[in-house]
Design brief:
alpha/beta; Transferase, Pyrimidine Nucleoside Phosphorylase, Chain A, domain 3; Pyrimidine Nucleoside Phosphorylase, Chain A, domain 2; 2 domains; seven-stranded mixed beta sheet; 14 helices; 12% strand; globular; anthranilate phosphoribosyltransferase activity; tryptophan biosynthesis; metal-binding
Amino acid sequence: MTFTDHLNTIIRGEDLSHEQMTAMMGDIFSGDITGAQIGAFMAALATKGETFEELAGAARAMRRKATRIQTMTQRVVDTCGTGGDASGTFNVSTTTAFVVAGCGVCVAKHGNRSISSKCGSADVLEALGVNLGTDPEVVEEAVNDIGIGFLFAPKFHSAMRHAAQARQEVGIKSIFNMLGPLTNPAATRHQLLGVFSPQLTEMFAQALKLLGAKRALVVHGHDGMDEITVCAPTRVSELNDGMVRTYDIDPLDFFDDYADAAKIKGGDVETNAAITLSVLKGEKGPKRNIVLINSAAALLAANEVDNLKQGIEKARQALDSGKALEKLEALAQFTQENA
């Protein structure tokens, strides 16, 4: 079947199989599809609504075109989320990545510059001294030698350029906005993944299952946050041993009270970089707490701890000992020296 055949299937409101979506996206990422066709595809699929099979198929096509890196251990975790929740928090998942690395778990942090917020993961890391321009070989070395590396999406996903103009011209949220967390070039099989809508938690968990993930926690806060929030309970769809179960996490089980949302707000790049540094240096309060609970979830996904309480304690030790800050400093130094 041709791209147009598959497009007509979507227009009729019918779902594609995993393999059909892989073929469609493969055509797009090969540069064989026109901007008008890509625009029609985006609009038709967004109107119909994506299935987890379609999401996994699209991610598989993107993974095939990515520049890959090899890791020395099978137990590598990512904390990349979809973004797009408009909550205005600081860079929680990026700060979390250094805490998890400080706990001795290997982290391949996938991310990009800001798209829907004032400050993306790449923006804050650049402000903190991490060189984004290093070659994939250097990133691979950082992951394996330091225990953390930043996989700057444009360096690894050059095929995405074929959809860039159509995405910009059409200007709608589409399946392309969902693929980042599912396309880590290190092929991480352990993941903490925040999503911008509660309807996406099970979809992403099922897509990760199809893509071969071992354990993942896909989360969305009841307050709308695409992290585990400390301001309200959080919906979690957990993939573990091939099974997906959905439940709620309540911060009251771990902290004294719900936090005021204003206390975890971020701002521009300089503001968010300063917040990340202050948390890594041991500052107490709601910002630390949201990093602790997200770090605990990432450690759980990596099978480093048996439950969230153990994870919070382990994350607390990484912060208080300075090991989390050391990981940031080591990554910044390594990427500058190997520019």
